[in-house]
């Protein structure tokens, strides 16, 4: 306020709306709030690149094993429930929508709506994990397990199907871990949102958690057809 | 067009440029992208009930890439961001294509040389001995190319 010519006395005389996100300030090494926000967002994007390459290694393994054990992959993938997979895809897409709307309402300084959208995202993530649980427990019961633990009977390709399930459990398992971590991140952001920390002036953590969550959805968008639909 | 097109709202926050003004995506954009994603999911599942042979994986990946582009452009805001963020993402895709592509080159064409290399295995301790035929050209080995001037003119 002391930067104003009258030392802020004019503001003190009138009714000023309270400063949004009072705890926020621009760090001294940034020349503007825009620079700080842009550099934070770019940092998250670089992290997302590492995540893409992380899953990329597993997609590479999938590609190699699929070329080596093509028949086993074709036979084994029919034992995955397409319907549950499709429902999970829809659930994650809806969670992406609520997350994006959560970022939007934080930008518009709508505190209650932000909290509601973030809570809805966490709820969708829970639904995803519950469906995953049912899928996994069904696999365990039928002996459709990875690699050396594969004990299911009646496969024309014998125990080669274990290679497919090794890929399946590794990729969906690590993805599931990312969902859980994402839920933790969004919970943290939700708690801060409920305290009223976010507004049009400062919403970077919501944006960052949103970017991470959209990436989790992105990876599932590729996992679903490759594992469930075409084997 | 990015968040730097800021009008100073008079909230002097101590930063010289004034507050960061968020770029707010219209609600309809989010709604349309959500509906498009659901539709594309339906298409993916529907198409999977038909067998196009080798094209199966191409179609599946194409639809998935369209969905991913929608999520990245609108939900993740890339369409409205500084272009550099999109460049960062495309670099990861390029590196992924190189990694998976070259790995598949390696694994798909392994063993192709075995028939030729088995005919006359090269002595790797002395690979370029004068007079030893090139084992990669078995026909030339039969024609004895180490006597180039010996062919008489008829």
Q: Mind explaining what this structure looks like?
A:
The complex is a heterodimer of chains A (231) and B (154). By secondary structure, chain A is mostly helical. Chain A contains 7 helices and no strands. The longest helix of chain A is centred in the first third of the chain and has 36 residues. Chain B has 154 residues and is mainly α. Helices cover 51% and strands 0% of the residues of chain B. Chain B has 5 helices and no strands. In chain B, helix 1 runs antiparallel to helix 2. The longest helix of chain B is centred in the middle third of the chain and has 26 residues. At the A-B interface, helix 2, helix 4 and helix 7 of A face helix 1, helix 2 and helix 3 of B.
Order of helices and strands of chain B: HHHHH
How much of the sequence lies in strands of chain B comes to under 5%
- Please give the radius of gyration of chain B in angstroms: 30 Å
Shape assignment of chain B: elongated
Largest interface: A-B, 64 and 57 residues
Question: Care to count the β-strands of chain B?
Answer: 0
Q: Quickly count the helices of chain B.
A: 5
Fraction of residues in helix of chain A: over 70%
Radius of gyration of chain A: 23 Å
Describe what is shown at a glance:
Chain A is built from seven helices and no strands.
Please render the helix and strand layout as text:
The complex is a heterodimer of chains A (231) and B (154).
Chain A: H1 9-13, H2 33-68, H3 70-76, H4 82-107, H5 111-142, H6 161-194, H7 204-229
Helix pairs in contact in A: 2-3, 2-6, 2-7, 3-6, 4-5, 4-7, 5-6, 6-7
Chain B: H1 27-47, H2 55-75, H3 83-108, H4 114-119, H5 138-142
Helix pairs in contact in B: 1-2
Key terms for this structure?
heterodimer; A: mainly alpha; 72% helix; B: 5 helices; 0% strand
